[in-house]
């Protein structure tokens, strides 16, 4: 059985998808972009964007009764690999070094709303 996870503390979906779906104890979180859910506006600059994306992901995890410790896989999309080091430091600051998820980071030519970063995650209930 699939359970749709939705919270007002993360941006509403901008297309025909859910913020996240829970199925058999696995949470599949849709790609999050740096939209501030309180204002509906984009934040700008890779530092602010990465923090906002991680806050959005955290809000969805919280709604599902999880934390970043439950995350088993992350996929990061960057518009420029020149932003990798800055993004990586901020991303790591939200995680526990004893439970880093598997991950890939890829550079893409364009992202929704022309943002610099998008991150999706998969988490598992303990």
UniProtKB/TrEMBL annotation:
<dbReference type="GO" id="GO:0005829">
    <property type="term" value="C:cytosol"/>
</dbReference>
<dbReference type="InterPro" id="IPR006175">
    <property type="entry name" value="YjgF/YER057c/UK114"/>
</dbReference>
<dbReference type="Pfam" id="PF01042">
    <property type="entry name" value="Ribonuc_L-PSP"/>
</dbReference>
<dbReference type="GO" id="GO:0019239">
    <property type="term" value="F:deaminase activity"/>
</dbReference>
<protein>
    <submittedName>
        <fullName>DfrA</fullName>
    </submittedName>
</protein>
<dbReference type="InterPro" id="IPR006056">
    <property type="entry name" value="RidA"/>
</dbReference>
<dbReference type="InterPro" id="IPR035959">
    <property type="entry name" value="RutC-like_sf"/>
</dbReference>
<comment type="similarity">
    <text>Belongs to the RutC family.</text>
</comment>
């Amino acid at each position: 059985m699939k359970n749709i996870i939705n919270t007002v503390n993360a941006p509403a979906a901008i297309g025909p998808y859910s913020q996240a779906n829970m199925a058999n104890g696995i949470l599949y979180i849709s790609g999050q972009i740096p939209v501030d859910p309180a204002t509906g506006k984009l934040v700008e600059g890779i530092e602010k964007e990465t923090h906002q994306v991680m806050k959005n992901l955290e809000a969805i995890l919280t709604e599902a009764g999880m934390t970043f410790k439950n995350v088993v896989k992350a996929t990061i999309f960057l518009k420029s690999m020149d932003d990798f080091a800055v993004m990586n430091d901020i991303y790591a600051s939200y995680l526990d070094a004893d439970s880093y998820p598997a991950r890939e980071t890829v550079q893409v030519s364009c992202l929704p709303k022309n943002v610099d970063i998008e991150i999706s995650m998969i988490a598992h209930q303990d």
